[in-house]
Amino acid sequence: MGRTLAIVNQKGGVAKTTTCLSLGACLAEQGRRVLLIDLDPQMNLSVCAGVRDPLDDGGIVDWLAQALGLRATHPPLVPISLLPNGLHLLPGDPSLVTLEQRLLEVPSYELGLRKMLNAIASDYEYVLVDCSPSLGPLTIMALTAAQHVVIPVPADYLAAWGLMQLITTIEAVKGRTNPSLDYSLLCVMFDRRNGISHSMLARLRASFSDRLWKMVIGLDTRVREAAAAGEPILRYAPKSRAAQHYRQWAQEILAYFEASDV
Ligand SMILES: Nc1ncnc2c1ncn2[C@@H]1O[C@H](COP(=O)(O)OP(=O)(O)O)[C@@H](O)[C@H]1O
Ligand SMILES: [Mg+2]
Fold first, then answer.
1. Ligand 2 centroid – CA 16 distance (Å)
2. Measuring CA to CA, which residue among 1, 48, 11 is closest to residue 160?
3. Candidate from 223, 234, 236, 240 with most ligand 1 atoms within 8 A of CB, to mutate
4. 10-residue mean pLDDT series, the chain (262 residues)
5. Please, are residues 183 and 4 in contact by the beta-carbon 8 Å criterion?
6. CA 187/CA 168 separation, integer angstroms
7. What pLDDT score was predicted for residue 260?
8. pLDDT at 84
9. Is 242 helix (H, G, I), strand (E, B) or coil?
10. pLDDT score recorded for residue 123
11. First to last CA, the chain
């Protein structure tokens, strides 16, 4: 099975979904087989990828329920919509809210997503999980299933608040169920004309040094347009600043995760 990366930040509006879809599209462009999993009941990733409805049968809730022992039968084995470039998506579902409310009653619920991935993810080199803006049970499942957490952090003064709580949560999951879990930070929405952006980036570099990816994703209004069009930025505006930045970051990702493979 491939590498599972969870895109996590308990703040909303910090480019988790944008980062998940853009990275997935970049990796697919580089010939990797990629599965995107929309673990947010708000379905933003699915909508940004042009998928507006949850699957009727064999969707994320069915798969998780089966992995958690809440459903006896296996969902059908073709739950995944195809996007351009061989990028696959398991769409989100508003009823993830109801499932999340039941999770704490399920013994070892944290392992649910990991078990689910064992059943469906063998065909992929990368599985990218887009999380909801919370550190609730769904996100804990994602942290338990992942090898690596990418934390998008906007270059904005208030964005750093809450980072320590997130890192403490990651460390707790590491101690309990996922000893090899690692994390990194990606500076996003960087406004090069704004002094705050530069001072925030300097602070992130000072605090996190080699956990911070070298590539910084710039602010780019075309990202919003791409979301409205339901397309990855790479396809909607292939030459835009954000598309180029995400491509360069994907090269860093590939070098980091695959250098030791050869
Ligand atoms: N680099 C960027 N430049 C401009 N807008 C961006 C950028 N990245 C994300 N956005 C916009 O910011 C908003 C929040 O991004 P989103 O990916 O949905 O965040 P999250 O998933 O963390 O809630 C969206 O409207 C998105 O289009
Ligand atoms: Mg989101």
1. 5
2. 11
3. 223
4. 92 97 95 95 95 86 92 68 77 96 95 93 92 97 98 90 94 97 97 95 94 98 96 95 98 92 54
5. no
6. 20
7. 67
8. 66
9. helix
10. 85
11. 17
Among all bound ligands, the one having the nearest atom to the CA of 244 is: 1
Distance CA 138, CA 151 (A): 16
- Ligand 1: does its nearest atom lie under 6 Å from the Cβ of 47? no
Q: What is the pLDDT of residue 108?
A: 95
**Confidence (pTM):** 0.96
Could you identify the atom of ligand 1 that is nearest to the CA of residue 18? Answer: 17
**Is any atom of ligand 1 closer than 6 Å to the C-beta of 34?**
no
The confidence score (pLDDT) of residue 166 equals 97
Residue 209 gets the label, from left (phi > 0), alpha (psi -120 to 50) or beta, of left
CA 42 to centroid of ligand 2, rounded, Å? 8
Ligand 1 binding pocket includes 217 (Cβ within 6 Å): yes
Residue whose C-alpha is closest to residue 148's, from 133, 125, 124, 129: 129
Nearest atom within ligand 1 for CA of residue 188: 1
List C-alpha distances in Å: 120 to 12, 14, 25, 62, 83. Answer: 28, 29, 20, 12, 17
Q: For the chain, what's the residue count? A: 262
The residue type at 248: Q
- Which option is the CATH number for 3-261: 2.30.40.10, 3.40.50.1100, 3.40.640.10, 3.40.50.300? 3.40.50.300
- Comparing CA positions, the residue from 151, 143, 149 lying closest to residue 177 is 143
Ligand 1 centroid–CA 121 distance in Å is 27
Does the Cβ of 18 fall within 6 Å of ligand 1? yes
